[in-house]
Design brief:
Radius of gyration: 25 Å
Number of helices: 20
Strand order of the largest sheet: 2-1-5-3-4
Distance between the termini: 48 Å
Helix content: 25-40%
Largest sheet: 5 strands, mixed
Number of strands: 17
CATH class of the largest domain: Alpha Beta
Structural class: alpha/beta
Shape: globular
Strand content: 5-15%
Number of domains: 3
């Protein structure tokens, strides 16, 4: 279609909104409630434009272009309207920017600055002060900072199909609420944090563990070790001001040492361990007629989702703990014995791209190391400890780096500590959707057939489509597998299973779009373009690893020979596997 924007002629695609057409033409229109592929709520009124012939200003995020449309994106009338709409949002918004987690990364703050607003002109219309909700182990809701953009509602409802939050009340009493205004920790929230990732202000943030970790590091009686998930290496550089998808594995290790951690380990070590256990579990189910399809259990948001909404299908889950939890159990048993450390004086810190990992670490069943030592050290219930003590998101780690003046541009490249820092390329790709499946297939094929793969790249399970499937030939045994990311797509596969229509033997599910690299604790903004950059870096590191199959990790081989004895064995079952809980809505 031919349109005129600011007196210039352009050709734009039919069906585009004015906002999209202007973006195509290189013209920026400010927005708050709009978020591509997530929300078109049209509530904030910041994106208004003037269209010749229209009686009022139009909201560009929802108004479609028409042939010959004449659009003006900036004049005195438009600027006044945008400014007033922003000032109305500020009327009920706290003025505590300096102490807010989103300071300097707040869209409302940015727009306020760009419009030259320097004072609060309108009086508060909301009489009551809304209380902060800190009941969740993963997330904090501060409704006072909410601007009712609806992004969190849209992502929870449409991307994740969880619907834990929605609009409630009318007029000045309108607010975002859980069912019956119950605490977040008491509703069917999966803790995925996608709401925090899309929130333009500080109304939803991760529950910070920074102070807790600093206290542990500064305590001379504690040995504090850290593990880093595969997606952190392609997120933390970005959080420190580098380009999206920057691969900074070695600099990250160096930075963590400078924070004061005793040892810097890699969650990829136990990602390899997960593949050994999970791969053998899958083969056992195939050979013995066990429950199929088997579904991965690495993603804690997904686990809580199936516990809430599809409890009848819990038997399809792999019993393997996630790599985070396997690491904690191995660190406080195998590594503690190997180094002579008292597990009660060890603090295991995880750096994860995921807010749901905070919840997972505190699940009551995640105390395998305590049970291992209980009789050996005559421990009582008062001595009980978790396998993982604290979880930091990528964003929290970046705050710690900034607090201590760590400059990523001048850090040397350093290696992880051993033995829990050795990993393969298969473990690296855990960070992207399809990665767990590909890593499992690399091992399952060679364990099942006894033959070496000629090409270890299972490209059919790569990509960003919501659901992908492939067939694998295990020397005459054909198995169908599927990969899904976001809980909306997981729901589709689970409904197939409960109808008895699933053709798959193995399914990978990741809670967040793009997998862990798109997790709720990653840098803001995270969008489709950013996720692609991160995925490219993940596959680059895999391709350049000396070892690319989990079963070839020499430290994993040694761990089985000298500690675990065998996959799916007695000690493996105790430390590396778990059970699940039926939960209500």
């Amino acid at each position: 279609m031919k349109v005129t924007i600011n007196n210039q002629s352009y050709e734009v695609a039919e069906g585009q909104t004015i906002l999209q057409a202007c973006q195509t033409a290189g013209i920026r229109i400010p927005t708050l409630c709009y978020l591509k592929d997530v929300s078109t709520n049209a509530s904030c009124g910041i994106c208004v434009v003037e269209v010749k012939g229209a009686r009022s200003l139009l909201r560009s995020c929802i108004t479609k272009v028409t042939e010959g449309m004449e659009i003006t994106t900036h004049n005195e009338r438009i600027a006044t309207a945008r400014r007033i709409n922003t000032e109305l949002l500020l009327a009920n918004h706290p003025q505590d920017c300096l102490g807010c987690d989103r300071n300097l990364n707040c869209e409302l703050q940015t727009i306020t600055y760009e419009m030259g607003i320097t004072d609060k002109r309108f009086v508060r219309t909301r009489k009551e002060v809304l209380k902060k909700d800190v009941s969740s182990l993963s997330l904090v809701r501060d409704p006072e900072k909410c601007i009712l953009c609806g992004r969190c509602v849209a992502v929870c409802s449409e991307m994740q199909t969880v619907k834990a939050i929605d609009f409630a009340g009318r007029g000045v009493k309108t607010h975002i609420a859980t069912y019956l205004d119950m605490p977040m920790g008491s509703v069917a929230c999966t803790n995925c944090g996608q709401c925090a990732l899309v929130c333009p202000t500080g109304a939803i943030t991760e529950k910070s563990s920074v102070s807790e970790v600093w206290d542990a590091i500064h305590n001379p009686a504690k040995t504090v070790i850290v593990q880093t998930a595969p997606a952190i290496r392609v997120g933390i550089g970005e959080a420190m001001g580098m380009a999206a998808g920057s691969l900074v594995t070695g600099q990250m290790v160096a930075g963590l040492r400078r924070l004061g951690f005793s040892k810097v380990f890699d969650t990829n070590f136990t990602a390899d361990l997960t593949i050994i256990e999970e791969g053998n579990e899958l083969l056992k189910r195939i050979k013995t007629g066990g429950k199929l399809p088997m579904i991965t259990s690495c993603s804690p948001g997904w686990i809580k989702f199936i516990e809430h909404f599809f409890p009848a299908s819990l038997g399809h889950l792999s019993t393997c703990k996630s790599p985070q939890q396997m690491f904690g159990a191995v660190a406080k048993t195998y590594y503690a014995e190997k180094t002579g450390l008292d597990p009660r004086n060890m603090v295991v810190v995880s750096v994860m791209p995921c807010t749901a990992k905070k919840y997972e670490a505190k699940r009551p069943e995640m105390d395998g190391a305590f049970e291992y030592w209980k009789d050996k050290l005559s421990l009582t219930e008062n001595d009980r400890f978790f396998d993982v003590d604290a979880v930091l998101t990528t964003r929290e780690l970046s705050r710690m780096f900034r607090e201590t003046g760590v400059d990523f541009n001048h850090l040397p490249v350093e290696e992880f500590d051993n033995p829990l820092g050795t990993s393969t390329g298969a473990a690296v790709i855990f960070g992207t959707t399809g990665g767990v499946m590909e890593a499992a297939l690399r091992t399952a094929y060679e364990v099942y057939t006894g033959k070496t793969l000629s090409d270890i790249n299972f490209r059919a399970v790569r990509g960003m489509e919501g659901i992908r499937e492939a067939e694998v030939n295990l020397e005459g045994t054909i198995i169908k597998v599927a990969v899904a990311h976001t809980l909306k797509n997981a729901r589709i596969l689970l409904e197939q299973i409960e109808k008895g229509e699933s053709p798959y033997a193995f399914i990978e599910v990741m809670t967040c779009p793009g997998g862990c690299l798109g997790g709720g604790g990653q840098p803001i903004p995270t969008n489709a373009e950013v996720r692609k950059f991160r995925a490219d870096s993940i596959y680059y590191e895999d391709a350049h690893k000396g070892l690319r199959k989990s079963h070839e990790n020499p430290e994993i081989v040694y761990l089985y020979e000298h500690f675990l004895k065998e996959p799916l064995g007695h000690l493996s079952h105790h430390l590396l596997h778990t059970t699940y809980t039926e939960r209500g809505y």
